[in-house]
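INFO  loader      accepted 1 record
INFO  loader      residues=508
INFO  predictor   begin
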Amino acid sequence: MEIYSTIIALVFFIFLIKLLKKSKTSKTSTKNLPPGPLKLPFVGNLPQVAAAGKVPHLGLQALAKKHGPVMQLQLGEIPLVVISSAKAAEQALRTNDLALADRPSLLLGEIGLANCRDIVFALYGDYWRQMRKICKSELLSVKKVRSFRAIREDESQHLLENIKNSVGSPFNFSESVAGMAHGVISRATTGKRSDDELVRIVEEISYWGAGFLVPDLFPSIKFLPTLTGMKKEIQKLRNAVDPIFDSIIEEHREKLARKKERKAMDNDADEEDLIDVLLRVNENERLEFPMTSNDIQGIVLDMFTAGIDTTSAVIEWAMTELMRNPRVMNKVQAEVRQVLRGKETINEDDIQGLPYLKLVIKEALRLHTPLPLLLPRQCRKECEIDGYHIPVNTKVIINAWAIGRDPEYWADAESFKPERFENNSVDFIGLDYDYLPFGSGRRMCPGMNFGIAGVELPLIQLLYHFDWKLPNNMKPEDLDVEDAFGSTTKRKNQLVLIPTSEYAAQKA
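INFO  predictor   done
INFO  writer      dumping tokens
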């Protein structure tokens, strides 16, 4: 009898606590909050999100069609506002950019990404501003991206050699393009190709970054990361990657010391990889926040997780859509082969003069936004979007994938039509809010130039040197376009194609 009395007393106590919290927040609740589906006790809207789609951006798009382009959800304990229109996205990313400049606290960032001492998950403030400045002026400047040209050309050539050995046979396009992207990122970042173990770790970290981990949704339940085993899994990844990067960073420190001895600090800046740059800046600049090895690890992990998946996904989806649309494939191949007629070797100088190819890339980015939900923001100062009140600490997500397919802004939105970008100024630099493949505002992806540079040359090579067909007599319209679960929009099923012939320069 006594135990039942204790349970009843405990339930009553919890009820009183919730009642007190409700009374304290009643002032906020009277404000005009965004609409949303009916919330269930404890779990909020998690069941509706799970039932609406196999991947988050699809599920959120389906719910937004019912509840509006500015929609409020409750995911466990987390208030979430989902924005699914260009008009609301502009208010979030331009008008209220500063109010929404923070990042939510996530288990992956705290454990897997150097306790949020990277760039992507760092809280908005002086440290983030310092690192963003270094990123824009040193790490990913136009000049620095150009300095990696030889690496991109070499890795593209390596990809071509692999394809030549598979002419007439099924070829795992997804796997090979991911390998090329890994080669570019690892060589640009560390100075050499990393081993397969690091690639595996990066892929797993990217998977955990999908953004809806149970412990992140119930942060007050402190034992949940341990209970679910997620803390252990992410910590295991961190423990695996730490010694790899510790060794690489130490090698670079020794190289920097040798450069200082021969007083050659600035003579070979074009040959620096990204770790070299970070160490040089840390050594030479009077930084407000000197970078530790942990900080450098976090930044390098950003480069790997963001660079490999996004670059390979864009090429993979562009090729998928070209295989599904023979008219577009014929048109872009004709342009590439006409402009580059007679060339045996293609380099980055040849990218100019291919306007239709650039439209193909733009259209692939529209239909298959690399980060479909961009990256979550946290409201640091209450604001208003589309007439709705957004309270402090609300998590805000921009469904850029849904905006890119919104028929209000895009005619025949589900079709792959590169011509839609002809004779207009829409671009991916963050000023067009109906087209946000790299985001916009303070938290816009700083690696945009690096990413585009990694897509253009290999795609030109693939279209110039080879003809392609689908395996097993598959029809173009039967090639699937299903997305995999994860933070990056990748194909659920790997793309397998048959390179049918090598287009030799002498045919031209």
